[in-house]
Amino acid sequence: MVNLSFCTGNSYVGCIDSEREALIKLKQDLIDPSTSLASWVGDGDCCKWAGVVCSDLTGHVLQLSLRNPIDSIGSSTETDLISLTRFFSSYEAHDRLMLGGKINPSLVDLKHLIQLDLSGSNFQGIQIPKCLGSLKNLRYLNLTAARIAEKIPHQLGNLSNLQYLDLSDIKLHVDRFSWLSGLSLLEHLDLSQMNLSKASDLLPVTNSLPSFKVLKLSECELHQFAPLSSVNFSSLIALDLSGNYFDSSLFQFGSCFFGHHRLVFLKLSANEFHGQIPIGLGNLTSLRYLDLSHNYFNSAIPGWLSKLNDLEFLSLRSPLPPALGELSSMTNLDLFSNTLNGAIPMSLGQLSHLKHLDLSHNRLNGSISEIHFVNLTKLTSFSISENSLILQVNPNWVPPFQLDTLHLRSCHLGPHFPSWLHSQKHLSVLDISNTRISDTIPRWFWNSISQYESLNLSSNQIYGEIPNFDRPLPLVPSHGVLDLSNNALSGSIFHLIFKGENELHNNYGYPKLSKNYFSGDIPDCWMNWPNLVVLNLGNNFSGSLPISIGNLSSLQLLNLRNNRMVGIIPVSIQNCSNLNVLDMGENVFVGDIPTWMGERLSGKIPENIGNMGSIESLDFSMNQFSGKVPQKAPLPNCPEKNAVVPEDRNENGNEDEDEVNWLLYASMALGFVLGFWCFMGLLLINRRWRYKYCYFLDGCVDRFRCSVRKCY
Asked: pTM value?
């Protein structure tokens, strides 16, 4: 593109004064905890301000993005403490950085605005500003998760040029959508997580939009759609009805959706579908994405799926067919937790375009050999965890793929350490826990360990010592989890922890080393790990607790249980201000308590113990403390040692005791009933929480099964 300017030789105009003033007024009514609007000051060029995009030719503001800097926290189906800690930390950060306040009417002065993004903001339950309806040139409006209450103003129907509208995750109850009929150019509509159970006019109104392409109605409390007298969804290419209460009648009365060959994306997961997978879906020959998971289909994967030549993503609950290889365009095959049984068909190796394969948490059995992978040259993610599968490959096998993610937990991989992993140069996530490996870790693997963001070798019979390298190596993964627990490793952990001066000093991680046979002193070199969050060292360590542990200012969990640690507890640990869980049990710590805690301690409890604001559990039992409990401690005041108990002058002690017992039993019964139904009631009411709780229980059962399998 060639820009011409006969005056200055430069086509750039810069900010319009009136629009700069409008932005300054807008900022004055906003609360900006993330300081993302820090550049919005003075008389500078507002086109260079954060979140502002202007036209190079006219200088008018065209785009305004005020979205949360942490705009997507996803969801967590993991059950371990580490994953949950990371998930909820992201959730808290997301809430903490939400833009707040209110929207100043000066926004309407940006008359040339075509794109507005306020997603992830906290407007404290106010109504969507009616002034938005005055932005006649607006084509894109995103209010996802903007914490806006009350009603959707009908003035939004004045946005005749609007093409993209996202009102998802606002959680409103909406009954009418007649205002949508004014959006004749609308192509994309997302109303997910909005209660639409009484919105009877939604389907007729959207049916009247001539350019309509994308409709997302996930988790909208929908049960059915009323039949339409005429159908005009011929331009629809993407439909998401997941997380609702549709049954199989949808395929009969919802033919307005499923009768068109242009549909590319179809997500119907987590509904109430039963019986066979409808044969009518085979007519959707343009499908690339099909998700039927978390329903109640009882038939095998139908043969007509092989006719969907463009299908790239498939997720459903059905047995694997022998003709799986006929899905030649498949790039993503997700059959996670589908109660699949039997063997994996050899035809899997024919899916030459496959990139992501997840068959984990099923009941698959049998063997997997090189033939299953023969043409999977594009595979980057492979997950078969929690199955009874045996990986039988030649020791010298070189896979045709380069993985970045590999999950084989609870499959049969051993007894030898898999040598073919040596060929995987891009692997960053590896889980081969509980895979019956009884071997040492090869030196080549120790040399490559720094490439992993998450590495889980736990619950095997891996033995040997951490090698002594010629130069220090950053062995602990720099951005994730290292789990070597429940093995037979021995010796010192010095070479696992020590890092040279030239290594990164801002790493964080979750090293789990417990239930091994490590011994010797705990290295005093923790100053290089200021962002460490979890440290689990339950082994056979001896010596004193290193002072440098006090440098772990981000530490939230410290487990030193079942060692032979001696001496006093360093005062430096008080610097671990974020510590939530501390376990020093079954050691031989002695001496007066400093400003911390421990076992077999004597003396007085320090007055400033109440400053430990993050502590949730505090156990001083089995010690020899004396004196009073400090008044600042997070405990109720206790009576003095020899306090006198008043006599019962009315001699009604037995009667009072009976009355107390009766009240106690009644309170226990009432508490049980209320507690149980408050918990169960929430699960019955909220479908989303019910799914997440089921995921949690599944994970607990899997871990219990792993523990039992290891014992026997």
From this structure: 0.63
